[in-house]
Batch of 4 targets.
Target 1
Amino acid sequence: MLIKVKRGWELPESAATPEDIYLNRRQIVKALGIAPAIAASASVLPAGMAMAVTTDKDPSVRLYPVPRNEKFTLDRPITAESDATSYNNFSEFGSHKQISHAAQQLQIRPWNIIIDGMVEKEFEIGVDDLLKQVKLEERLYRHRCVEAWAMAVPWSGFQMSELVKLAKPLSGAKYIAMQTILASKREMPGLRQFWYPWPYQEGLTMEEANNELAFLVTGMYGKPVRPQNGAPIRLAVPWKYGFKSIKSVIRFTFTDEKPKTFWEALQPAEYGFWANVNPEVDHPRWSQASEWLLGGPQSERVPTQLYNGYTEFVAHIYPPDASDIYFR
């Protein structure tokens, strides 16, 4: 079955426009009566539409903001929060990008996470109890969607290797399979798309999961992560295409068998297990050589970087002559 997908380099972090200035500028533009033209140029919801949702009911709100890890910096401006929270892929809420309103139906507490499979002892832990056992920090990461759009986000969370240590995997474990919550069709109306292989599942090798870049996200922009962005806990693996960064995770299973992931099960010729970003390996239906930066004009594109610019962190994981590690 064919699934239809809709279709600055070297800028120091200091050059990024601060969020408060950006939002004030948007208000000025709106007052001048030209906001609709700007919104149309980016093909996203008008700025601020998703901002009406507050995070004050999230019990973890008191934990943020968290200290920034300066090792992880950006070569481009931080994407405006209003754009990053209003232009989202989350198939469980719909097959379009404007799912931020529908996603507020997701019940993010109580939220228990299952750790099972090849571990010393299987267990279940509440997300708030998990947050007490890890070191939270902020990291600035690039995010590259397979659809050739990109953003730059200040994620908060903890290194995935910390969860691996808590899980105490057996020596024979080679992979970690992850699963998104499977809620009711009322909470997640996208589940009515019966042709999808629900629940959403993803996976990493143990070496990938223990890499310092692999990050479990619990917050963004100095606040708890929003439902549309994967609350209350999601994955960020910035050297891979975005569909690998599974959202709203409820299970981590340690296994010696390579997981059959959601998009790989649906369309293996287009969405493989590895999904490492490579500008020289195109998607079967479009080029990956360049990308559109979310919030800017779609006509202005920048070159895609190998491993999304994180070669120094991850190249040692993969054989240099293995072409299948990039896209499929």
Note: Residues 230 and 247 are 4 Å apart (CA to CA).
Target 2
Amino acid sequence: MKRIALVATVLLSIHIGNIWAESRNNPSEAPSVSNVHYVRAPRFARPLVEKWIKEYAKTQPGVEFQIAKGGQSQDDVDLNVVYNTKDSVEENNNHIIYFGKFAVLPIAASGSEAAKVLEGKHLNSKKLKQLYFLSDDLDEDVKKIKQFEKLVIYSGSNATSVASSFAHNFGEESSNFRGRRISGDDLFLNTALAKDPLGVSFNALPNIFDLSSRHIKGELTIIGLDVKKNLEESFSDKGTLDEIINALEQGKVQEVPTQKIGVHYKQADEEVKRFLSWVVTNGTKYNHEYGLLNLK
């Protein structure tokens, strides 16, 4: 029996060897290997991109897209989800496919001293500037709020932070924030608030809301904004993610920054082009589910 088994093993090895030899001589018959395309995205947009990849795979099973790994070289990344496009991205005539918008809300830790200081304030744009930014030039009609001075502002310093979007909405630069800068993903801003009872920050909607329950995360509270009476509850901890998205799509709320978000590529082969085409025709239907606004 041992001899028979040995002979069978040898014959099987020879057979497999012949198959690979034939594949090398006839490349068209070689087993196909999928070319992996990598997509880099900030964390708040990553669940949406993962959804795209999953759904697109159902239509193109031979093509593989993956989220880029943290230490992966930029040269190996085919697509980047971007929104801070005032830099060289557009200046170099590279390409951006816009698929939606994101919104940013001011936040504090639920039940914190900062939340108590800001409770019932209904801040307008001028008062938000006073709270978040270094400025000695206050308008005459804006009374200086002394309580703001003891609050600590946390803002992101990463290139993919929404800090620039928040600042530009109020006519400021991100370098002009008061307080402390946090490196890394903007999700760490939530962590900083949990550790500092005087901390105040801001974040994109997907980082503020639980995407399953559609309600604000339990550890956070939305800072009161000076919005129309019929929107006050929507822009409070009682509101839902869908109510806020709907309100912002109906019309601009001056105190809430919104900005276009898109996919940037330098060069695109046919597989990447087909993926991008699918994103703008099919992928945008998932925007609301993952906390983003649709483009008009």
Note: The domain at 35-296 is CATH 3.40.190.290 (D-Maltodextrin-Binding Protein; domain 2).
Target 3
Amino acid sequence: MAAEPAVAAQAVLLDLDDTLVPWQTLTHWQWAWKPRGPVLAERHAHAAIKRCVHAWDRRRWAGLVGEQPATDLASYRDFLRSTLESVAGHPLPAAESEAVVERFLHPAHEFERFADAEACVRSLQAGSRQVGVVTYLPQEVARTMLHRAGLSESLLVLSDADGPELSLPKAAGFRAAAKRLGAKPSQTVFVGDLFWSDVRAAGRTGMRSLLLDRQDASSRVTAARIRSLSELPGWVAAPPVPEASDPAVS
């Protein structure tokens, strides 16, 4: 069966953390846990963060499809505590762990930036496309992230402030975000850095979903991928013919 031609994109939704703004980084965890302490072992910490983020991606998907309870801010904090324990290599006292999670969620340090983010947003907007940012993170955290990354806080169209019924990765959340940009899901492109709970979840709504794979670590994923946000404006302007089957990973 021949694939139908892609509908012209009127809107682009961007995931916030680790797509538009660095978040699960060694620098952020260093500041949250040991801002004045010994430098964390880079190789170990990177591996621990990657492993935990992958587990969180699958956990969010499991909540979406009913295999486990849906994720919320409490489960996200559990994920952060688990990541901290993995980075540390051993359990921490509850009080210390909680303090680190609070610092992680309310950072006071200067954010790292992705060099391609601001130019990408400007290019998309110059092409008369509506651009919005979505996240499951607390609204005040999201606004801080955007501000410190040099991006407008007005880009934020969906966060935890919209309530659990619209919390990502629920389909209702993706649809609401597209509607707020004046577009249907079929007219919207979504870009995220996680395959299951970003790309596949958005794709279930009829959006064209695109995986941002900065490290080229997901070569086995058959979903559409880009390595940099600098590729996004061109991809949106001339998207490839969509696959006839649902994107999958082997």
Note: Residues 121 and 131 are 7 Å apart (CA to CA).
Target 4
Amino acid sequence: MTGQPLPGWGPPRSRTVSWYDPAATSNGTAGRTGLAFLQAIVDGQLPGPPIASLFDFRIVSVVEGEIVFACTPGESAYNPIGVVHGGLVCTLLDSVGGCAVQSTLPAGVAYTSIEISVRYMRPLRADGSEITATGRVVKSGRRVAVAEGEIRDAAGGLVATAVTSCLVFPVAGL
């Protein structure tokens, strides 16, 4: 994008994204259980990760094995056909699935996504309405954990569901 208006389309739109040093967040895991770490983000003791700023995600609530995020998608997330790109929906589902798993982990243990399967139920428009994503742990294992997620629109309609598998592993120094 050149920043110059295109004939008949008006000026280009822009969006500014600000985030905190990701080390401030990741260093906050040291000595904390996954649940305590996530609660520290909710309480404002730690900043959220950069991806949360990029896509406007925020944690609404977290208990062991379950997390709820809110997001208000903007038109900057539109795909060429004029709906919110499935990548934002998938990223949000991957985030709530992974964070649900993280909420069950002891200090010194981390996770990473190894697989996600998403089912899209309906298109999503950037109309200023908040969507809600919920992740719940289905199986918490020593090496692999599985979580389910769902996204609902402001009217409660089901937008998408997912099943996420995560590799669970110890991390020295956490």
Note: The mean pLDDT is 94.
